[in-house]
Amino acid sequence: MKKLFISLVVAFAFCTSSMAQVVYNEVRSKAIAAVNNPATNPMLKKINQFKVDALDYMGIKMKETMPDSTVNFLDRQAYALNNFVSLYMQTILDNRKQPAAYQVKLIKLFMDASYSNPLFNDPDKELVLSYFSDGNSLTRFSLDTDWRRAFVAAALEVKKIK
Question: Does this model's pTM top 0.90?
Answer without folding.
Answer: no
